[in-house]
Specification:
Layout (H helix, E strand, L loop, with lengths): L1 E3 L12 E3 L2 E3 L12 E3 L2 E3 L12 E3 L2 E3 L2 E3 L7 E3 L7 E3 L7 E3 L65 H6 L9 H10 L6
Parallel strand pairs: 1-3, 2-4, 3-5, 4-6, 5-7, 6-9, 8-10, 9-11
InterPro entries: 5peptide_repeat, Pentapeptide-BTB/POZ_domain
Pfam families: Pentapeptide, Pentapeptide_4
Protein name: Pentapeptide repeat-containing protein
Length: 195
C-alpha cells in the first residue's frame, strides 16, 4: 500500500509495528514515533522535522531523500537500512546504532556524532562538513567522495576506512587513528614522495 502526501503532523504513533508500508512525500513533523518498529518499509521525500524517533527500530527499511531536522534519534537502531540522500540537521544522535547501512549522499553538516559507532557504513559522497566526529568509530567505512572540510576527527578510528585523496586533503586527521595504508595515501595526497 502506497501512501502519498499524507499529513501525520503531531500524530501519536508511538510503539507501532509497520511492515512493508510505503510512504512518499508524507509529513511527520512533530510526530511521536518513539518506539516505532519498521521492517521493509520505504519512506521517500518524507519530512521528520522535530519528530521523536527515540528507541525506534528499523530493519531493511529505506528513508531516501528524507529530512530529519531537530529530530530525536536517541537510542534508535537501524539495521541494513538505506538513508540515501537524507539530510540530518540539529538532530540528537545519542546512543544511535547504525549497522550495515547505506548513508551515501546523506548530509550530516555540523552534526554532533561524537564517539558514535559508524564502522562498516557506506558514507560515499556524504556531507560531513564541520561534523564533530571526535572519537567516532569509522573502521572499515567507505568515505569515498565524502566532504570532510572542517570535520573534527581527533581520536576517531579510521583503520580500514576508504578515503580518497580529496578527503585526505580536506580532513584534519590530527589525533585520528589510521592504518599504514591510509598514512601512506595521506602522505601522497599532500605531495610527499615516498621511497
Amino acid at each position: 500500500m502506497l501512501e502519498t502526501g499524507e499529513d501525520y503532523r503531531e500524530a501519536v504513533l508511538s510503539g507501532q509495528w509497520w511492515e512493508k508500508r510505503r510512504f512518499t512525500g508524507c509529513d511527520f513533523t512533530g510526530a511521536d514515533l518513539s518506539g516505532l518498529r519498521t521492517r521493509g518499509c520505504t519512506f521517500d521525500d518524507c519530512v521528520f522535522t522535530r519528530a521523536d524517533l527515540s528507541r525506534s527500530r528499523h530493519d531493511a527499511s529505506a528513508f531516501r531523500s528524507c529530512t530529519f531536522d531537530r529530530t530525536v534519534l536517541a537510542e534508535s537502531r537501524w539495521t541494513a537500512c538505506s538513508l540515501l540522500g537524507t539530510s540530518f540537521t540539529d538532530s540528537g544522535f545519542g546512543g544511535i546504532a547504525l549497522t550495515e547501512c547505506d548513508l551515501s549522499l546523506a548530509s550530516f553538516s555540523k552534526a554532533r556524532l561524537r564517539r558514535l559507532g559508524l564502522s562498516g557504513l557506506r558514507l560515499r559522497e556524504a556531507n560531513l562538513t564541520e561534523a564533530d566526529l571526535t572519537g567516532a568509530d569509522l573502521r572499515g567505512s567507505d568515505l569515498t567522495g565524502a566532504r570532510l572540510q572542517g570535520a573534527k576527527l581527533e581520536g576517531a578510528d579510521l583503520r580500514g576506512a576508504r578515503l580518497d585523496a580529496n578527503a585526505l586533503v580536506q580532513a584534519d586527521l590530527r589525533g585520528a587513528e589510521v592504518d599504514v595504508e591510509t598514512a601512506i595515501a595521506f602522505a601522497a595526497a599532500h605531495g610527499l614522495i615516498i621511497r
